[in-house]
Design goal:
By secondary structure, the protein is an all-beta fold. The protein has two domains: 241 residues, Neuraminidase (6 Propeller); 105 residues, no CATH class. The chain has one helix and 21 strands. A four-stranded antiparallel beta sheet has the order 4-5-6-7, with no helix packed on it. It has a four-stranded antiparallel beta sheet with strand order 8-9-10-14, with no helix packed on it. Strand 9 and strand 10 form a beta hairpin. The longest helix is centred in the middle third of the chain and has 5 residues.
Length: 361
């Protein structure tokens, strides 16, 4: 089986402008005749699929989009899926962006990410195999099974846009824990380590370790995004702070990667490798980064726990990361930052660049 997550139009609409940006995040299961075959052989491509799950996403952005299986024996057959808070700004209804975009729609109560009655702003966990006439099964071990008013698919909540997440490869000596990179709004980016079942990761009460006020537009009386206002690690109680964070002087959107469990780079063993899209939305200056949880830096002097893995920017937009069967890592990038023609590149993370190769420094 092969699983994909795509944005699809709402049934009964024609996809025209008045029906956008509303769309459905659609998880599909495909039957693949031979998953090890040449993907360019058109006779072996998937020919049929079934919808496992659909989630209405009211805006064009914050779709999340990571899908992956667990790597522990206990969750090897369970599929994790990350979903953003519904998009627009501040995870609240009626908000207008700084350029007047909006108003934001379909953000209810204290914000989707904090509400257990919907799947937006969550990491969910399901068994994707159909059972008893249902398209998927909810594992009995999920933390909100049996909780009144809560969607039992939820594994953890309080995320803004957990664009990428992954499982630390238990089959290669890792812990099987879930790591996620949650894209921030206007100020901060975060990495969440060892995501806890049932854990609340703060958005929109907090953005990273800072308290967040989502009511900028109501307070100021003009279009305005919300804002951070106090560094408050460990408070309020019950919210889980990130293991690493950095501000928008250093990047604009965190791109989640993997805990390294390969053999070619022993100094990286057990460390989380991730990236940032760019230092600006038009510059194409992405970075490849690594988390060092033992970094003793004073946060007033420099950003703790986050280091460049390469010497600096790689002169491309960083879009994602890949991991092979042996745990070696790859960086996915392109020149434009958006899908356009055939400009994407796949680069392997290596200790030292070969002479004459196109290596990034």
């Amino acid at each position: 089986m092969l699983y994909t997550l795509t944005s699809e139009r709402i049934p009964g609409t024609d996809g025209s402008a008045q029906n956008q940006p509303n769309h459905l995040g659609t998880l599909r299961e495909w039957r693949v005749p031979d998953p090890g075959a040449n993907p360019l052989d058109t006779t072996l491509r998937p020919t049929s699929s079934r919808v496992v799950l659909r989630v209405k996403e009211p805006q064009f952005n914050h779709d999340g989009g990571a899908i992956f299986f667990g790597t522990r024996a206990s969750d090897r057959d369970l599929l994790y899926l990350t979903l953003g808070d519904g998009g627009c700004a501040d995870d609240q209804n009626g908000q207008l962006g700084l350029a007047g975009e909006g108003p934001c729609i379909s953000h209810t109560g204290p914000g989707n990410a904090q509400k257990l009655s919907n799947l937006l702003g969550k990491i969910i966990r399901i068994d994707p195999r159909a059972s008893a006439g249902e398209p998927y099964t909810v594992p009995a071990s999920n933390p909100f099974v049996g909780t009144a008013g809560a969607r039992p698919e939820i594994f953890a909540f309080g995320f803004r846009n957990p664009f990428r997440a992954s499982s630390d490869r238990a089959d290669l000596g890792g812990t099987g824990a879930i790591w996620a990179a949650d894209v921030g709004q206007n100020h901060l980016e975060e990495v969440d380590a060892r995501v806890r079942a049932g854990g609340n990761y703060g958005w929109w009460v907090k953005e990273d370790t800072f308290r967040f006020n989502p009511a900028g537009f109501a307070l100021l009386g003009l279009p305005s995004d919300g804002f951070v206002w106090e560094n408050s690690p460990g408070r309020p109680a019950g919210l889980i702070d990130p293991v690493a964070q950095y501000d928008h002087d250093e990047g604009v959107a965190t791109i989640g990667g993997f805990v390294y469990r390969g053999a070619e780079l022993p100094r990286l063993q057990g460390r989380y490798v991730f990236g940032d899209y760019s230092d600006g939305f038009n510059s194409g200056n992405g970075r490849v980064l690594v988390v060092d949880e033992e970094d003793p830096a004073d946060p007033h002097q420099r950003t703790p726990n986050v280091f460049n893995l390469t010497n600096g920017h790689i002169n491309l937009f960083v879009l994602g990361f890949g991991e092979d069967a042996r745990g070696e890592l790859y960086v996915l990038a392109n020149h434009d930052g958006i899908p356009f023609e055939e400009e994407g590149v796949v680069m392997k993370v290596v200790r030292r660049c070969a002479d004459g190769a196109d290596c990034r420094n």
